[in-house]
Amino acid sequence: MQHLLAVLACATAAAASTQIIAGGTATTTINSDTGKMSVQTAGSSSAAVSAMLASVVELDSDGQELSSGTSTQHKVSFSASGSGAFSLGSITADASFGVSAQASTSTSTGTLITGVPSLSVSNQILVYQAEGTAMPEGSGGLSVQVSNGTAEMRTSISGWPWCLSSGGDLLNNCVLGTLRKAGAFLELEYQFETRMEAMLSQSSDLMVAYDIGGGAELVLSKRAKVAGSYVALAEGYPKVTASSATSLTMKVRIPKGSATGTVDIMYDPITRASGAGSLSSRTIVSGDTSVEINSAGKAALTAVSGARTAISARLSGISEVNSNGQALTDGNGNSHSLGISGSASGYFGLGVIRVDASLSVQAKLVLASANFLNRASIDQDLIVFTEAGTVKPEGESGLSLSVRGGTLKTSTKIANWPWCGSGSNSALTCSTASRRSLVGSSGRALSASAGAFLDLTYQFDTRAMATMTSSDASSVAFNLGGEANAVFSKRAKIGSTWTAVADGYPKLDADATTASSAVVIVRIPKPSNSESEIMYDPAVDENGSANSAAGSAVAAVAALLVVAATALSARTA
Protein backbone atom coordinates (compact mmCIF):
# COMPACT_ATOMS: atom_id res chain seq x y z
CA MET A 1 0.00 0.00 0.00
CA GLN A 2 1.40 3.32 -0.83
CA HIS A 3 1.41 5.48 2.21
CA LEU A 4 1.47 9.20 2.07
CA LEU A 5 4.17 9.67 -0.54
CA ALA A 6 6.43 12.60 -0.61
CA VAL A 7 9.82 13.43 -1.89
CA LEU A 8 12.55 14.39 0.58
CA ALA A 9 16.15 13.33 1.27
CA CYS A 10 18.06 15.13 3.91
CA ALA A 11 16.58 16.46 7.07
CA THR A 12 16.86 20.03 8.22
CA ALA A 13 14.84 21.93 10.76
CA ALA A 14 12.78 24.79 9.32
CA ALA A 15 11.20 26.28 12.40
CA ALA A 16 10.59 25.04 15.90
CA SER A 17 7.19 23.63 14.91
CA THR A 18 8.23 21.95 11.65
CA GLN A 19 10.61 19.38 10.26
CA ILE A 20 11.68 18.96 6.64
CA ILE A 21 12.83 15.71 5.03
CA ALA A 22 14.11 15.81 1.45
CA GLY A 23 14.36 13.07 -1.14
CA GLY A 24 14.46 12.98 -4.91
CA THR A 25 12.77 16.11 -6.29
CA ALA A 26 10.44 17.03 -3.42
CA THR A 27 10.40 18.11 0.18
CA THR A 28 8.05 16.91 2.89
CA THR A 29 7.25 19.26 5.76
CA ILE A 30 5.88 17.88 9.05
CA ASN A 31 3.91 20.32 11.21
CA SER A 32 3.83 19.72 14.96
CA ASP A 33 0.80 22.00 15.49
CA THR A 34 -1.51 19.88 13.35
CA GLY A 35 0.32 16.66 12.50
CA LYS A 36 -0.06 17.56 8.82
CA MET A 37 2.43 16.28 6.24
CA SER A 38 2.83 18.52 3.15
CA VAL A 39 4.69 17.48 0.00
CA GLN A 40 6.03 20.00 -2.52
CA THR A 41 7.89 19.10 -5.70
CA ALA A 42 10.99 21.21 -6.34
CA GLY A 43 10.75 23.64 -9.24
CA SER A 44 7.05 22.96 -9.78
CA SER A 45 4.29 25.55 -9.86
CA SER A 46 1.80 22.91 -8.71
CA ALA A 47 0.39 23.34 -5.22
CA ALA A 48 1.66 21.13 -2.43
CA VAL A 49 -0.35 18.05 -1.56
CA SER A 50 -0.87 17.21 2.08
CA ALA A 51 -2.31 14.64 4.45
CA MET A 52 -3.57 15.07 7.97
CA LEU A 53 -5.27 12.82 10.50
CA ALA A 54 -8.37 14.85 11.45
CA SER A 55 -10.13 12.60 13.96
CA VAL A 56 -10.44 9.20 15.62
CA VAL A 57 -13.83 8.10 16.92
CA GLU A 58 -15.18 4.89 18.50
CA LEU A 59 -18.33 3.38 16.95
CA ASP A 60 -20.66 0.57 17.93
CA SER A 61 -21.60 -2.25 15.54
CA ASP A 62 -24.27 -0.01 13.98
CA GLY A 63 -21.78 2.77 13.27
CA GLN A 64 -23.03 5.10 16.04
CA GLU A 65 -20.56 7.28 17.95
CA LEU A 66 -20.12 6.37 21.61
CA SER A 67 -19.66 8.23 24.89
CA SER A 68 -18.95 6.77 28.29
CA GLY A 69 -21.11 7.03 31.40
CA THR A 70 -19.18 10.14 32.38
CA SER A 71 -20.54 11.86 29.21
CA THR A 72 -17.02 11.68 27.87
CA GLN A 73 -17.10 11.38 24.09
CA HIS A 74 -14.83 8.63 22.79
CA LYS A 75 -13.41 10.85 20.09
CA VAL A 76 -10.14 12.66 19.41
CA SER A 77 -9.98 15.56 16.93
CA PHE A 78 -7.05 17.49 15.44
CA SER A 79 -7.63 20.92 13.90
CA ALA A 80 -5.92 22.32 10.81
CA SER A 81 -5.58 25.56 12.78
CA GLY A 82 -4.47 23.86 15.98
CA SER A 83 -1.38 24.57 18.04
CA GLY A 84 1.11 22.17 19.62
CA ALA A 85 -0.97 19.02 19.09
CA PHE A 86 2.15 16.90 18.47
CA SER A 87 5.74 16.78 19.58
CA LEU A 88 8.32 16.06 16.91
CA GLY A 89 10.84 13.27 17.33
CA SER A 90 14.30 13.14 15.82
CA ILE A 91 14.90 12.13 12.20
CA THR A 92 16.55 8.73 11.96
CA ALA A 93 17.45 6.16 9.30
CA ASP A 94 14.89 3.38 8.88
CA ALA A 95 14.90 0.30 6.64
CA SER A 96 12.28 -1.79 8.45
CA PHE A 97 10.15 -2.21 5.31
CA GLY A 98 12.99 -3.29 3.06
CA VAL A 99 13.93 0.08 1.53
CA SER A 100 16.14 2.77 3.02
CA ALA A 101 14.16 5.70 4.43
CA GLN A 102 14.40 8.73 6.67
CA ALA A 103 11.76 8.67 9.41
CA SER A 104 10.35 10.96 12.06
CA THR A 105 7.56 10.25 14.56
CA SER A 106 5.14 12.93 15.81
CA THR A 107 3.42 12.01 19.09
CA SER A 108 0.26 13.58 20.49
CA THR A 109 0.64 15.84 23.50
CA GLY A 110 -1.62 16.32 26.49
CA THR A 111 -4.67 14.30 27.50
CA LEU A 112 -6.76 13.42 24.45
CA ILE A 113 -9.74 11.95 26.34
CA THR A 114 -10.47 13.03 29.90
CA GLY A 115 -9.38 10.37 32.39
CA VAL A 116 -7.19 8.47 29.88
CA PRO A 117 -3.66 9.83 30.30
CA SER A 118 -2.16 6.72 28.67
CA LEU A 119 -3.93 7.28 25.34
CA SER A 120 -1.48 8.17 22.58
CA VAL A 121 -1.81 8.92 18.86
CA SER A 122 1.32 9.12 16.74
CA ASN A 123 2.17 9.59 13.06
CA GLN A 124 5.43 8.16 11.78
CA ILE A 125 6.48 9.79 8.50
CA LEU A 126 8.82 7.70 6.35
CA VAL A 127 10.45 9.25 3.28
CA TYR A 128 12.11 6.61 1.12
CA GLN A 129 15.60 7.37 -0.15
CA ALA A 130 15.90 4.80 -2.93
CA GLU A 131 13.86 2.84 -5.44
CA GLY A 132 12.64 -0.57 -4.36
CA THR A 133 9.73 -2.65 -3.13
CA ALA A 134 8.52 -1.80 0.36
CA MET A 135 6.48 -4.35 2.32
CA PRO A 136 4.82 -2.38 5.14
CA GLU A 137 2.64 -5.38 6.05
CA GLY A 138 5.45 -7.92 5.92
CA SER A 139 5.76 -10.89 3.56
CA GLY A 140 2.44 -12.03 2.16
CA GLY A 141 0.92 -8.56 2.45
CA LEU A 142 0.76 -5.57 0.15
CA SER A 143 3.96 -4.71 -1.72
CA VAL A 144 4.57 -1.12 -2.80
CA GLN A 145 6.96 0.14 -5.46
CA VAL A 146 8.64 3.21 -3.99
CA SER A 147 11.21 5.67 -5.27
CA ASN A 148 13.55 8.25 -3.83
CA GLY A 149 11.07 10.65 -2.21
CA THR A 150 8.08 8.37 -1.68
CA ALA A 151 6.59 9.24 1.70
CA GLU A 152 4.44 7.18 4.03
CA MET A 153 2.37 8.26 7.03
CA ARG A 154 1.87 5.53 9.61
CA THR A 155 -0.75 6.29 12.29
CA SER A 156 -0.59 4.33 15.55
CA ILE A 157 -3.12 4.46 18.38
CA SER A 158 -2.45 2.92 21.78
CA GLY A 159 -4.31 2.92 25.09
CA TRP A 160 -7.80 3.46 23.66
CA PRO A 161 -10.51 3.22 26.42
CA TRP A 162 -12.86 0.83 24.63
CA CYS A 163 -16.53 0.70 25.54
CA LEU A 164 -17.31 -2.77 26.90
CA SER A 165 -20.56 -4.72 27.04
CA SER A 166 -19.82 -5.52 30.69
CA GLY A 167 -17.18 -4.94 33.36
CA GLY A 168 -14.49 -2.30 33.32
CA ASP A 169 -14.75 1.11 34.94
CA LEU A 170 -16.89 4.14 34.23
CA LEU A 171 -14.94 5.01 31.05
CA ASN A 172 -15.77 1.57 29.62
CA ASN A 173 -19.49 1.90 30.34
CA CYS A 174 -21.17 3.44 27.27
CA VAL A 175 -24.93 3.76 26.93
CA LEU A 176 -27.10 4.62 23.91
CA GLY A 177 -30.71 5.04 24.89
CA THR A 178 -31.17 2.43 27.60
CA LEU A 179 -28.66 -0.08 26.24
CA ARG A 180 -25.05 -0.51 27.18
CA LYS A 181 -22.98 -0.60 24.02
CA ALA A 182 -19.61 -2.13 23.18
CA GLY A 183 -17.16 -0.49 20.83
CA ALA A 184 -16.79 -2.35 17.52
CA PHE A 185 -14.73 0.02 15.35
CA LEU A 186 -12.33 2.92 15.40
CA GLU A 187 -13.01 5.27 12.50
CA LEU A 188 -10.09 7.41 11.34
CA GLU A 189 -10.78 10.47 9.20
CA TYR A 190 -8.01 11.80 6.96
CA GLN A 191 -8.07 15.13 5.14
CA PHE A 192 -5.98 15.69 2.02
CA GLU A 193 -5.14 18.78 0.00
CA THR A 194 -5.21 17.86 -3.69
CA ARG A 195 -4.36 19.35 -7.08
CA MET A 196 -7.63 18.26 -8.70
CA GLU A 197 -10.75 16.38 -7.73
CA ALA A 198 -9.64 12.88 -6.80
CA MET A 199 -10.17 10.22 -9.46
CA LEU A 200 -10.03 6.48 -8.78
CA SER A 201 -6.93 5.10 -10.49
CA GLN A 202 -6.69 1.55 -9.15
CA SER A 203 -8.50 -0.87 -6.85
CA SER A 204 -7.63 -4.38 -5.70
CA ASP A 205 -8.35 -6.69 -2.79
CA LEU A 206 -5.50 -5.06 -0.86
CA MET A 207 -5.63 -1.37 -1.74
CA VAL A 208 -7.33 1.55 -3.46
CA ALA A 209 -5.54 4.42 -5.23
CA TYR A 210 -6.60 7.89 -6.33
CA ASP A 211 -5.04 10.31 -8.81
CA ILE A 212 -5.10 13.67 -7.00
CA GLY A 213 -3.57 15.76 -9.81
CA GLY A 214 -0.26 17.01 -11.14
CA GLY A 215 1.49 13.67 -10.76
CA ALA A 216 0.35 13.09 -7.16
CA GLU A 217 -1.27 9.86 -6.05
CA LEU A 218 -2.92 8.71 -2.86
CA VAL A 219 -2.90 5.00 -1.99
CA LEU A 220 -4.73 3.48 0.96
CA SER A 221 -4.61 -0.09 2.20
CA LYS A 222 -7.76 -2.11 2.77
CA ARG A 223 -6.16 -3.63 5.87
CA ALA A 224 -5.03 -2.34 9.26
CA LYS A 225 -2.96 -3.80 12.07
CA VAL A 226 -5.00 -4.62 15.19
CA ALA A 227 -3.33 -6.10 18.27
CA GLY A 228 -0.35 -7.23 16.18
CA SER A 229 -2.27 -8.85 13.29
CA TYR A 230 -3.45 -7.47 9.94
CA VAL A 231 -7.22 -7.51 9.47
CA ALA A 232 -9.57 -6.31 6.70
CA LEU A 233 -11.25 -2.93 7.11
CA ALA A 234 -15.04 -2.74 7.35
CA GLU A 235 -16.80 -3.40 4.02
CA GLY A 236 -16.77 -0.37 1.75
CA TYR A 237 -13.74 1.27 3.36
CA PRO A 238 -11.62 3.30 2.77
CA LYS A 239 -14.53 5.59 1.84
CA VAL A 240 -14.58 9.03 0.21
CA THR A 241 -16.89 11.28 2.24
CA ALA A 242 -16.15 14.66 0.60
CA SER A 243 -14.29 15.71 -2.52
CA SER A 244 -13.57 18.94 -4.41
CA ALA A 245 -10.99 20.31 -6.83
CA THR A 246 -8.63 21.07 -3.93
CA SER A 247 -9.51 18.68 -1.11
CA LEU A 248 -10.46 15.12 -0.28
CA THR A 249 -11.83 13.61 2.94
CA MET A 250 -11.68 9.87 3.52
CA LYS A 251 -12.71 7.62 6.39
CA VAL A 252 -11.13 4.34 7.39
CA ARG A 253 -13.23 2.05 9.62
CA ILE A 254 -11.08 -0.44 11.55
CA PRO A 255 -12.73 -3.35 13.40
CA LYS A 256 -11.70 -4.16 16.94
CA GLY A 257 -12.65 -7.80 16.42
CA SER A 258 -12.20 -10.22 19.29
CA ALA A 259 -9.03 -8.57 20.58
CA THR A 260 -8.98 -7.67 24.26
CA GLY A 261 -7.09 -5.17 26.37
CA THR A 262 -6.09 -1.78 25.03
CA VAL A 263 -5.91 -3.13 21.44
CA ASP A 264 -3.24 -1.03 19.75
CA ILE A 265 -4.17 -0.09 16.17
CA MET A 266 -1.98 1.00 13.25
CA TYR A 267 -2.95 2.32 9.79
CA ASP A 268 -0.82 3.94 7.10
CA PRO A 269 -2.02 5.77 3.97
CA ILE A 270 0.52 6.76 1.27
CA THR A 271 0.77 9.89 -0.87
CA ARG A 272 3.13 9.78 -3.82
CA ALA A 273 3.81 13.27 -5.08
CA SER A 274 5.99 12.75 -8.12
CA GLY A 275 4.37 9.75 -9.80
CA ALA A 276 6.55 7.76 -12.21
CA GLY A 277 9.41 10.01 -13.26
CA SER A 278 9.50 13.80 -13.41
CA LEU A 279 6.43 16.03 -13.47
CA SER A 280 7.10 16.80 -17.15
CA SER A 281 6.99 13.21 -18.45
CA ARG A 282 5.84 9.65 -17.83
CA THR A 283 7.43 6.51 -19.28
CA ILE A 284 5.74 3.14 -19.78
CA VAL A 285 7.69 0.14 -21.12
CA SER A 286 5.98 -2.91 -22.59
CA GLY A 287 7.71 -5.56 -24.65
CA ASP A 288 10.36 -3.95 -26.84
CA THR A 289 8.57 -0.59 -26.91
CA SER A 290 9.14 2.33 -24.55
CA VAL A 291 6.51 5.10 -24.61
CA GLU A 292 7.51 8.46 -23.12
CA ILE A 293 4.62 10.92 -22.65
CA ASN A 294 5.52 14.56 -22.07
CA SER A 295 3.49 17.47 -20.75
CA ALA A 296 2.83 18.69 -24.31
CA GLY A 297 0.80 15.50 -24.77
CA LYS A 298 3.39 14.06 -27.13
CA ALA A 299 4.01 10.31 -26.98
CA ALA A 300 7.41 9.17 -28.27
CA LEU A 301 7.63 5.46 -29.10
CA THR A 302 11.08 3.91 -29.23
CA ALA A 303 12.42 0.37 -29.48
CA VAL A 304 14.11 -0.65 -26.24
CA SER A 305 16.52 -2.77 -28.31
CA GLY A 306 17.33 0.20 -30.54
CA ALA A 307 16.37 -1.86 -33.57
CA ARG A 308 13.91 0.69 -35.03
CA THR A 309 13.81 4.46 -35.55
CA ALA A 310 11.61 6.24 -33.01
CA ILE A 311 8.24 7.67 -34.00
CA SER A 312 5.87 9.98 -32.11
CA ALA A 313 2.21 10.90 -32.04
CA ARG A 314 0.39 13.86 -30.54
CA LEU A 315 -2.76 15.94 -30.71
CA SER A 316 -1.44 19.15 -32.27
CA GLY A 317 -4.60 21.20 -32.67
CA ILE A 318 -8.35 21.60 -32.18
CA SER A 319 -10.27 24.07 -34.35
CA GLU A 320 -13.94 24.95 -34.56
CA VAL A 321 -14.95 25.55 -38.17
CA ASN A 322 -18.16 26.53 -39.96
CA SER A 323 -19.93 24.50 -42.63
CA ASN A 324 -17.37 25.76 -45.20
CA GLY A 325 -14.44 24.58 -43.08
CA GLN A 326 -13.39 28.12 -42.07
CA ALA A 327 -11.92 28.73 -38.62
CA LEU A 328 -13.96 30.97 -36.32
CA THR A 329 -13.33 33.83 -33.89
CA ASP A 330 -15.92 35.04 -31.39
CA GLY A 331 -17.09 38.59 -30.70
CA ASN A 332 -14.64 38.90 -27.80
CA GLY A 333 -11.72 38.37 -30.15
CA ASN A 334 -11.10 34.81 -28.96
CA SER A 335 -9.98 32.41 -31.66
CA HIS A 336 -11.79 29.09 -31.43
CA SER A 337 -8.67 27.31 -32.64
CA LEU A 338 -6.13 25.81 -30.31
CA GLY A 339 -2.60 24.97 -31.39
CA ILE A 340 -0.48 22.70 -29.18
CA SER A 341 3.27 22.77 -29.73
CA GLY A 342 5.15 19.52 -29.34
CA SER A 343 7.68 21.38 -27.19
CA ALA A 344 5.12 23.24 -25.07
CA SER A 345 6.28 21.94 -21.71
CA GLY A 346 3.61 22.08 -19.05
CA TYR A 347 0.64 22.51 -21.40
CA PHE A 348 -0.97 19.38 -19.97
CA GLY A 349 -0.95 18.37 -16.32
CA LEU A 350 0.10 14.72 -16.23
CA GLY A 351 -1.52 12.24 -13.89
CA VAL A 352 0.03 9.15 -12.38
CA ILE A 353 0.48 5.88 -14.24
CA ARG A 354 -2.39 3.57 -13.38
CA VAL A 355 -3.63 0.13 -14.44
CA ASP A 356 -6.48 -0.03 -16.96
CA ALA A 357 -8.46 -2.92 -18.45
CA SER A 358 -11.56 -1.05 -19.67
CA LEU A 359 -11.13 -2.48 -23.18
CA SER A 360 -10.67 -6.05 -21.87
CA VAL A 361 -6.92 -6.02 -22.57
CA GLN A 362 -4.50 -5.13 -19.78
CA ALA A 363 -2.91 -1.71 -20.15
CA LYS A 364 -1.34 1.17 -18.25
CA LEU A 365 -2.75 4.67 -18.52
CA VAL A 366 -1.74 8.30 -17.91
CA LEU A 367 -4.22 11.20 -17.82
CA ALA A 368 -3.19 14.55 -19.34
CA SER A 369 -5.49 17.52 -18.63
CA ALA A 370 -5.73 21.11 -19.90
CA ASN A 371 -8.28 23.92 -20.30
CA PHE A 372 -9.27 26.22 -23.17
CA LEU A 373 -10.84 29.72 -22.91
CA ASN A 374 -11.40 29.08 -19.19
CA ARG A 375 -14.29 26.81 -20.08
CA ALA A 376 -13.51 23.74 -22.18
CA SER A 377 -11.64 20.89 -20.53
CA ILE A 378 -9.37 18.75 -22.68
CA ASP A 379 -8.39 15.40 -21.23
CA GLN A 380 -6.25 12.76 -22.86
CA ASP A 381 -6.08 9.19 -21.61
CA LEU A 382 -2.84 7.81 -23.02
CA ILE A 383 -3.14 4.03 -22.83
CA VAL A 384 -0.25 1.62 -23.45
CA PHE A 385 -1.33 -1.99 -23.77
CA THR A 386 0.80 -4.44 -21.81
CA GLU A 387 -0.37 -7.63 -23.50
CA ALA A 388 -1.58 -8.82 -26.91
CA GLY A 389 -5.27 -9.07 -27.65
CA THR A 390 -8.22 -7.67 -29.57
CA VAL A 391 -9.97 -4.49 -28.49
CA LYS A 392 -13.38 -3.38 -29.72
CA PRO A 393 -13.73 0.26 -28.69
CA GLU A 394 -16.93 0.63 -30.75
CA GLY A 395 -18.55 -2.50 -29.34
CA GLU A 396 -19.16 -5.90 -30.91
CA SER A 397 -20.50 -4.51 -34.19
CA GLY A 398 -17.77 -1.91 -34.67
CA LEU A 399 -14.10 -1.75 -35.49
CA SER A 400 -11.84 -4.45 -34.00
CA LEU A 401 -8.15 -3.76 -33.44
CA SER A 402 -5.35 -6.19 -32.82
CA VAL A 403 -2.95 -4.80 -30.21
CA ARG A 404 0.27 -6.00 -28.62
CA GLY A 405 2.37 -5.01 -25.66
CA GLY A 406 3.53 -1.50 -26.56
CA THR A 407 0.55 -0.37 -28.68
CA LEU A 408 -0.52 3.16 -27.70
CA LYS A 409 -4.10 4.47 -27.79
CA THR A 410 -4.80 8.15 -27.10
CA SER A 411 -8.34 9.00 -26.03
CA THR A 412 -9.04 12.73 -26.30
CA LYS A 413 -12.09 14.02 -24.42
CA ILE A 414 -13.37 17.55 -24.92
CA ALA A 415 -16.06 18.85 -22.57
CA ASN A 416 -17.93 22.17 -22.42
CA TRP A 417 -16.69 23.45 -25.77
CA PRO A 418 -17.95 27.08 -26.30
CA TRP A 419 -19.67 26.42 -29.63
CA CYS A 420 -20.33 29.40 -31.89
CA GLY A 421 -24.01 29.99 -32.48
CA SER A 422 -25.14 28.21 -29.32
CA GLY A 423 -25.05 28.55 -25.58
CA SER A 424 -27.03 27.85 -22.44
CA ASN A 425 -28.09 31.52 -22.10
CA SER A 426 -27.59 33.13 -25.50
CA ALA A 427 -25.93 32.33 -28.79
CA LEU A 428 -22.18 33.02 -28.98
CA THR A 429 -21.63 35.21 -32.05
CA CYS A 430 -18.64 34.30 -34.19
CA SER A 431 -17.30 35.09 -37.64
CA THR A 432 -14.46 33.97 -39.89
CA ALA A 433 -11.14 35.78 -39.65
CA SER A 434 -11.48 37.30 -43.14
CA ARG A 435 -14.95 38.72 -42.44
CA ARG A 436 -13.92 40.12 -39.06
CA SER A 437 -11.37 42.30 -40.83
CA LEU A 438 -14.29 44.21 -42.38
CA VAL A 439 -15.67 45.24 -39.02
CA GLY A 440 -14.52 48.61 -37.71
CA SER A 441 -14.38 51.65 -39.90
CA SER A 442 -17.64 50.92 -41.65
CA GLY A 443 -19.30 49.79 -38.46
CA ARG A 444 -21.27 47.25 -40.47
CA ALA A 445 -22.60 44.33 -38.44
CA LEU A 446 -21.67 40.94 -39.85
CA SER A 447 -24.02 37.98 -39.80
CA ALA A 448 -22.99 35.30 -37.33
CA SER A 449 -21.19 32.20 -38.52
CA ALA A 450 -22.12 29.11 -36.53
CA GLY A 451 -19.77 26.29 -35.69
CA ALA A 452 -20.45 23.07 -37.60
CA PHE A 453 -17.43 20.88 -36.87
CA LEU A 454 -14.41 20.40 -34.62
CA ASP A 455 -11.25 19.60 -36.56
CA LEU A 456 -8.82 17.50 -34.52
CA THR A 457 -5.28 17.50 -35.94
CA TYR A 458 -2.84 14.71 -35.13
CA GLN A 459 0.85 15.04 -35.94
CA PHE A 460 3.39 12.20 -36.24
CA ASP A 461 7.14 11.93 -36.50
CA THR A 462 7.47 9.19 -39.13
CA ARG A 463 10.12 6.86 -40.57
CA ALA A 464 9.21 7.68 -44.17
CA MET A 465 6.66 9.63 -46.20
CA ALA A 466 3.25 8.56 -44.90
CA THR A 467 0.97 6.86 -47.39
CA MET A 468 -2.60 5.58 -47.27
CA THR A 469 -2.55 1.78 -47.41
CA SER A 470 -6.24 0.89 -47.18
CA SER A 471 -9.70 2.34 -46.79
CA ASP A 472 -13.05 0.65 -46.19
CA ALA A 473 -16.41 1.55 -44.71
CA SER A 474 -15.14 1.51 -41.13
CA SER A 475 -11.57 2.85 -41.23
CA VAL A 476 -8.66 4.27 -43.16
CA ALA A 477 -5.06 3.14 -42.62
CA PHE A 478 -1.76 4.94 -43.14
CA ASN A 479 1.76 3.55 -43.13
CA LEU A 480 4.20 5.77 -41.22
CA GLY A 481 7.27 3.98 -42.52
CA GLY A 482 8.51 0.46 -41.89
CA GLU A 483 6.45 -1.37 -39.25
CA ALA A 484 4.64 1.77 -38.00
CA ASN A 485 1.05 2.17 -39.11
CA ALA A 486 -2.05 4.21 -38.36
CA VAL A 487 -5.69 3.14 -38.49
CA PHE A 488 -8.40 5.79 -38.06
CA SER A 489 -12.07 5.00 -37.57
CA LYS A 490 -14.61 6.64 -39.84
CA ARG A 491 -17.30 6.66 -37.16
CA ALA A 492 -18.14 8.74 -34.14
CA LYS A 493 -20.46 8.00 -31.26
CA ILE A 494 -23.02 10.73 -30.65
CA GLY A 495 -25.18 9.87 -27.67
CA SER A 496 -25.69 6.11 -27.97
CA THR A 497 -25.48 5.98 -31.79
CA TRP A 498 -22.35 5.53 -33.90
CA THR A 499 -22.36 8.14 -36.69
CA ALA A 500 -20.05 8.80 -39.64
CA VAL A 501 -17.50 11.60 -39.35
CA ALA A 502 -17.52 14.24 -42.09
CA ASP A 503 -17.24 12.90 -45.64
CA GLY A 504 -13.64 12.48 -46.76
CA TYR A 505 -12.26 12.27 -43.22
CA PRO A 506 -9.98 11.23 -41.58
CA LYS A 507 -7.57 12.49 -44.22
CA LEU A 508 -3.84 12.97 -44.64
CA ASP A 509 -2.92 16.65 -44.98
CA ALA A 510 -0.67 16.44 -48.04
CA ASP A 511 0.58 20.03 -47.69
CA ALA A 512 1.86 19.38 -44.14
CA THR A 513 3.30 15.90 -44.74
CA THR A 514 7.01 15.33 -45.40
CA ALA A 515 9.43 12.42 -45.42
CA SER A 516 9.70 12.64 -41.61
CA SER A 517 6.38 14.12 -40.50
CA ALA A 518 2.69 13.47 -41.16
CA VAL A 519 -0.53 15.28 -40.25
CA VAL A 520 -3.96 13.61 -40.15
CA ILE A 521 -7.17 15.65 -39.72
CA VAL A 522 -10.41 14.30 -38.28
CA ARG A 523 -13.53 16.44 -38.81
CA ILE A 524 -16.18 15.81 -36.15
CA PRO A 525 -19.75 17.06 -36.62
CA LYS A 526 -21.16 19.36 -33.97
CA PRO A 527 -23.54 17.37 -31.75
CA SER A 528 -27.18 18.39 -31.58
CA ASN A 529 -26.66 18.93 -27.86
CA SER A 530 -23.92 21.56 -27.77
CA GLU A 531 -23.14 20.70 -24.14
CA SER A 532 -22.13 17.15 -25.05
CA GLU A 533 -18.70 15.69 -24.41
CA ILE A 534 -16.60 14.76 -27.43
CA MET A 535 -14.12 11.89 -27.35
CA TYR A 536 -11.77 10.65 -30.08
CA ASP A 537 -9.03 8.08 -29.52
CA PRO A 538 -6.19 7.17 -31.88
CA ALA A 539 -4.02 4.13 -31.17
CA VAL A 540 -0.36 3.93 -32.27
CA ASP A 541 2.08 1.05 -32.74
CA GLU A 542 5.70 1.54 -33.77
CA ASN A 543 6.22 -2.18 -34.48
CA GLY A 544 2.92 -3.36 -35.95
CA SER A 545 1.83 -6.61 -37.51
CA ALA A 546 -1.21 -7.51 -39.63
CA ASN A 547 -4.52 -6.00 -38.51
CA SER A 548 -7.39 -8.07 -39.88
CA ALA A 549 -10.00 -5.48 -39.01
CA ALA A 550 -8.52 -2.76 -41.18
CA GLY A 551 -6.78 -4.96 -43.71
CA SER A 552 -3.41 -3.45 -42.83
CA ALA A 553 -0.86 -3.40 -40.06
CA VAL A 554 -1.85 -3.31 -36.37
CA ALA A 555 -3.64 -0.41 -34.83
CA ALA A 556 -0.90 2.05 -35.07
CA VAL A 557 -3.31 4.90 -34.84
CA ALA A 558 -6.93 3.89 -34.46
CA ALA A 559 -8.99 7.01 -34.08
CA LEU A 560 -12.44 6.70 -32.58
CA LEU A 561 -14.84 9.45 -31.63
CA VAL A 562 -17.44 9.40 -28.89
CA VAL A 563 -19.86 12.22 -28.18
CA ALA A 564 -21.47 11.44 -24.83
CA ALA A 565 -24.89 12.72 -23.88
CA THR A 566 -23.76 14.19 -20.55
CA ALA A 567 -21.31 17.07 -20.33
CA LEU A 568 -18.33 16.81 -18.02
CA SER A 569 -17.43 19.67 -15.74
CA ALA A 570 -14.18 21.45 -16.53
CA ARG A 571 -11.23 20.21 -14.55
CA THR A 572 -7.80 21.69 -13.92
CA ALA A 573 -4.67 19.67 -13.31
TrEMBL record:
What's the domain of life for this entry? Answer: Eukaryota
Keywords tagged on the record: Signal
Signal sequence, renumbered to the chain: 1-17
The name on file for this protein is Uncharacterized protein
Name its species: Cafeteria roenbergensis (Marine flagellate)
